[in-house]
Amino acid sequence: MVSPEPRTGPEFWRDLKPIEKVFRKDAAPEIFLPDTLDDDERYFIPLSETVGSRPLWISLTQNRWADVLMATQAGLVNRHYHPHQVFGYTLSGRWSYLEHDWVATKGTFVYETPGEAHTLVAHESDEPMRVHFNVTGPLIWLDEDGEPEGTFDAYDYLELARDHYEKVGLGAAEVEKLLR
């Protein structure tokens, strides 16, 4: 192991030499989205009258995506089942699953295990519910009795995003930047 370079001052790293070979051959560049919490609704794909999803990253080969799910008022977001794991981190607002006794607020992390069905609801709050989710698809939509009534995966998400971005003037090419 190489010994660390000497450190002086609070931002000692300013004098460090950046790595010249950043990407391996055939590696895709990172995605850098600095303003994902702005209120520009064009970036949010409407899922209902009060719920939208802002795609941050989409992988068709892994059937995964990362997004910011936003609900602008209290209400039912959706009912679904996960055959794969999901990670969620609450950015603002309040939300929960009717099937659990907790309420997520800003700073709450949730790991959803494969095999879980739940009813996602947004609670009343002074700010919109915004949750960063990392989803491995598909989601299986459920009716009020918990019976399957459709699926949603990364391919569906990409198609919705392209259509929406075209409709609001951002262009489908804006979504293409998120594919990895």
Number of strands: 11
Class derived from helix and strand content: mainly beta
Largest beta-sheet details: 6 strands, antiparallel
The termini sit apart by 32 Å
Strand portion: 35-45%
The strands making up the biggest β-sheet line up spatially as 1-2-3-9-5-7
Helix-residue proportion: 10-25%
**What letter string, H or E per element, gives the SSE order?**
EEEEEEEEEEEHH
- Overall shape: it is globular
Give the rounded overall mean pLDDT.
Answer: 94
Ranges where pLDDT stays below 50 over 5 or more residues in a row are none
Would you summarize the structure shown here?
The chain is mainly β.
Structural commentary:
This protein is mainly beta and 180 residues long. The chain is built from 2 helices and 11 strands. The strands form 2 sheets. A 6-stranded antiparallel β-sheet has the order 1-2-3-9-5-7, with helices on one face. A 5-stranded antiparallel β-sheet has the order 6-8-4-10-11. β10 and β11 form a beta hairpin. The chain is globular, with a radius of gyration of 19 Å. The model has no long low-confidence stretch (mean pLDDT 94).
